[in-house]
Amino acid sequence: MMIAPTLPAELKAALDGKLQGFSRTDAAQRSQKISNTYRSGGGSGTIKSEADALAYALARMPATYAAVAASLNALTEIVPDFAPETLLDVGAGPGTASWAAAEAFSSLQSFTLLDANGTLSRLALELAQDSARLGDCRYLPGDAGANLAEISPADIVIASYLIGELGEHDQRALTEMMWSKARHALVVIEPGTPAGYSRILALRQQLIAAGAFVAAPCPHEKPCPLTAPDWCHFSQRLPRSQAHRQIKGAEVPFEDERFIFIALTRTPPATRAARVLAPPDIGKAEITAKLCTEETLTITKVLRRDKTAYADARRWRWGDAVMAES
Ligand SMILES: C[S@@+](CC[C@H](N)C(=O)[O-])C[C@H]1O[C@@H](n2cnc3c(N)ncnc32)[C@H](O)[C@@H]1O
Predict the structure, then answer these.
(1) Which CATH superfamily is domain 9-265 in?
(2) Ligand 1 close to Cβ of residue 52 (< 6 A)
(3) Where exactly are the structural domains of the chain?
(4) pLDDT tens for residues 189-236?
(5) Which atom from ligand 1 is nearest to the alpha carbon of 68?
(6) In 59-193, at which residue ranges do the beta strands (DSSP E only) sit?
(7) pLDDT tens, position by position, 242-288
(8) What distance in Å separates the CA atoms of residue 8 and residue 41, rounded to the nearest whole number?
C-alpha cells in the first residue's frame, strides 16, 4: 500500500505523550549536539540519556520516517503483490522503519528490532507498547551483525540510516549478513549526500554480485550510469510540527528530507520503470527530464505538441517511477 510521509497517528500520539513537559530549549540543545556529532562522523553514540533519545526522535524521526515511507512506496509500486509477514529492522533506533513497514504492509505480523543503543531501544519499545501492530515486537540488544548471525531470516530486512555509522569493512560484512537474512527483500536507506550515495552504490554492487535484483530506484542491475560529481538521491517533503519548528528555529511549515535508498529482491521484478532523477524542467514548448531507464541515463524532451505524452510528463516528479506505457 502506498503510504503518507507523515508519522502514523498512533506513533505521533505516543511521541507527543513522551514530549509533554519536555523543554523545547533543552531538546534544541540536545538535538544540536547530536547532529553536530553526526556531521563529524560520530554516529548516534552521543545519544545516552532518555532526554537525548527523545530529542533525537523529535528532531529526526519524522524525516527518517518520511524517507523510509518513500522507499517502501517505491518498492511496492514495482512489486505490488509483495506481502511480507516478518521484518528485521536493523539499527532500528526509535523503531522508525518498523512503523513505516507496518503501514506499508498490512501483512506484517512479526517485528524484530535490532539496535546497540539501549536508550533509543527503550524509547522504541515505549512508543510501540500500546500499538496493536507493534506492541509485541521483539528487541535484540547489542551488535546487529552478531545478533543477525543467530536468528532466522525474515521476509523483509530494512536498515534505515544505519550503514553510515559503520566502517567500510563492517558495512560489507553487515551487508552480506543482512542479505543472507532477507528471504525476499532488503531495503537500505541513507542520507541523500554523495557519501550516502557511494555507500548505497557499494552495497548495490556487492549484492548484485551475490545475485540480487534491484526493484527500486534503479531499473536495472547494470553499473550506475551516473558519473561524479553527479550523484543519485531523492527528496521527500514532510510537514514540520510546531515543536519541530521550535527546536530547529525553522520558519517554514515543512522540511525536505534528502535521501537515497535501494530496494533489492531475490527474484527479478516483473516491472521495470524509468526513474526521474531530478525535478523536471517544464518549459513553454517542452518538458525536459533526467531519466534513468533500463538502457541508459537520458535527458528526455517531451514536446508540448505530443499532447498525451506532454500531459503525462507534466505529472512527473523527482523520484517518480515512469512506467513504460506512459
Ligand atoms: C541514525 S540511527 C537510525 C535509527 C532508525 N533506523 C531511523 O531511521 O530513525 C542509527 C542506529 O543504528 C544503531 N547502530 C549503529 N551501529 C550498530 C550496530 N553495529 N549494531 C546495532 N545497532 C547499531 C545506533 O544505535 C542507532 O540507533
Answers:
(1) Vaccinia Virus protein VP39 (3.40.50.150)
(2) no
(3) 9-265, 273-323
(4) 999 999 999 999 999 999 999 999 999 999 999 999 999 999 999 999
(5) 8
(6) 86-90, 110-115, 138-141, 154-160, 182-191
(7) 888 887 887 888 999 999 999 999 999 989 999 999 999 999 899 99
(8) 30
